[in-house]
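Q: Protein A?
A:
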Amino acid sequence: MKVVIVDDEKHVRSAITMLAEWDKLGIQEVLQASDGEEAERLIELHQPHIVLTDMRMPRKSGAELLTWLSENKPHMKTIVISGYDDFEYVRHAIRHGGMDYILKPVKAAALNEALKKAVQCWRKEEDERIRLTQQMIGMNEMKPHYTDRLLTELLSGQSGREFLEGIQDELQFPAGLASCSVAVAAVSQLDHELFGKFKNRLQLIHFVILNICNELLRSRGIAFRQLDSRGEIVLLFWGPSEQFEALLGEIGKGILVTLQRQVHFGLALERSYPKELPRAYQEASKALWKRNALDPARIHRQHAEKMEQAGRPLRLSAYEEELRLAALSGSNDRIRAAAEHWIAEVRQLDSVSPELLLQWNQEWEWMRTQWLEDGRTTSAVDARETSADMPVCLPLDQQGMLSWATLQGELENRLADVSAPLTRMHANHTSFIESIASYLNEHYREEVSLQDVAARFYLSREYIARKFKQAYGVTILDYLSRIRIDRAKLLLHNPHLRIVQIAEMVGYPDEKYFRRVFKKIEGVSPGEYRKEHTIG
């Protein structure tokens, strides 16, 4: 929740900020204004839930601000904090929706009690608004779905004469319609927090946005759900094309006021109807999904030259080995480091599109399935990400731009979720330790490191080292050294082989190092061993 504190005295604003129990009340953002005019600008920009205001201020007083709020933002909760115990002030506050009137100097108990009442009241009214909206959806459910299906068919290229005449009659399309413009918005490009607020009721979010769109389109167009897409809303506009962008701006403002979210639109202006309508829709949709989520622009058009210049996309799957080893380590630090490395790579990009974010989601799902396939194991991730009713929620913020924190946190959570089942799966397959031992016996002549073994068996170095020592009582390096020295001892019985040749044959290109390892294990040098064990 958000709060705006309005007072011309800075020390009063600071005192309120310190006295209020913001976290306990569930208030995340506190803004300040020094008078009513500044407050109006902040309120329009940030859409707070609660306003705390003084009464006497320069330029625009608290009384004037209360009047403006009651007329323009009646859902906002207001609390007056004043140094004047004046009946007219109190009466004005009550008449214009003020919930409480607190006298200065402000006491913590009175302030927090008033804030608590305001928060509870706002939440209760919000729940009621959602309930009523759901009720309206239930009453009008069938007709909108029928309309959505008809218009989705129109976008797919259905253009028979009888079909078009039916649309014109049933939906009141203008007679003789020759052209129209198309815009596309996507509910699936909204943020996690909004989905949580609506308890993942995607239909309700669609309903709210469609109501705003159609209220402002009126007789100049129609908005509907594209039923064959990933949560898209399509707007057809048959008014003058030069008016469409301004209208989309008004629609965006309406959505911002209602949902406190910025919505992005893909746009294709004035195409012939109905022939070019499917192509116009595809163009607008592509512009929306290929937009740069690092760019704050709200309206997007398809630019062919930019599409051609786009290089090879960054692949999450290219980092599969690092991510899998991090998950297998079970270490939060290793998981965080792997996620930070990925984010550092993404930050090198000039553009990150919603389409690319979707691709990374799909790559993650593929990797996770591959990792857990042998163990036939599921995790908590399944329930969250495979709902038939919900699109994949992208790591975007309230402005529809890429949220770096969400992108990193999402990857860390996914790795943490898959860590336990992946580790259990490998723990149940103890034979992999024997496979590693067999591999060392077969490849002792080659240069083999712990990292090589970890990469080959898709396990973390720490996990392999720990499990191998538990099984064999020695480290992998010591085990490999014993294999090599045992082979060398057999070869030393052949007097025709020089020691330097034997060293190379068992995996030691450096003869001096071979001699040191041999003496450490056997207690004698290779030459001494040969003298002691050579017959004749």
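Q: Protein B?
A:
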Amino acid sequence: MSTAVVESPVRTARAPRRIPRFPLAVPVEITVLKSGVPDSVPGRLLNIGEGGMAAILAAELRTGDSVGVSFRLPEVALAVHARGVVRHRSELRCGVEFLGLLPEQQGLLRYWIGQAPRKSVQNTSTGLHNKSSVSSTKRRRRIDAPRVRRVLWIAVAILFTTCAIGWWHWYRAWQEIESQIPPVTGFLSSEPARVPGEVMDQLVTHKIEPVYPAAAREQNMRGVVLLETVVGADGSVIDAQPLSGPEGLAPAAIEAVKWWRFQPYHVKGKAVAVETTLAVEFRPQARSAASETEN
């Protein structure tokens, strides 16, 4: 009779954090790039340290996402702005590691973290050491009040200057990040190029003939509809508005032109959006003759 030996699974203990975290419950705003567009996600901090933070957010992020973080520390006048990367997540909870934290921002965190353990110890020992608290209160009263106020004003001025410099560095760094975001093609740029309709006619790769409206056919309506058209950098039609021509034929002309496709128009080797005027001609008799010939 053989005896089977079953090995119990070995649990690997989670490695302790190299930098301690401290509980903190304040609002936080996470900025993440989605499809090249900055998106703001609100949330609430769970803990904070010099190396990173944990928070519960209103939307799920992906591990490895680069984010911008903004929050306010208790009893600190200015907000903390930092860049980071998502290291782990569990549904709406995620952990963010700070990257390239500026010295000014790191100074704010160290100042608050240095105060956090003291406040925790003071709150815990309030009801246990009444005699020591009374004696400490008497000692505080002996301190020169004007001297304390001077020291506080100097500390506030230094802190304000440090935070202002830190915010300026963070703002410039964020502008550099936004400048590296590639432009989204197919959307209207701020200043589209003006191109003649004859030039754009030569760049047509896909053209749909308009559907002749029944009411216009009964009235034997004909003519040319001119459309002010905006073509995106990818060659798709973004917008079309009538300039002239029979009003009864304008909707059919717009509907047809929206399906047209063009080769991208380049300026200095870069595809750009353009404004142009396109003509759509309606000839009902020619269409009828063509249909009779086919029959």
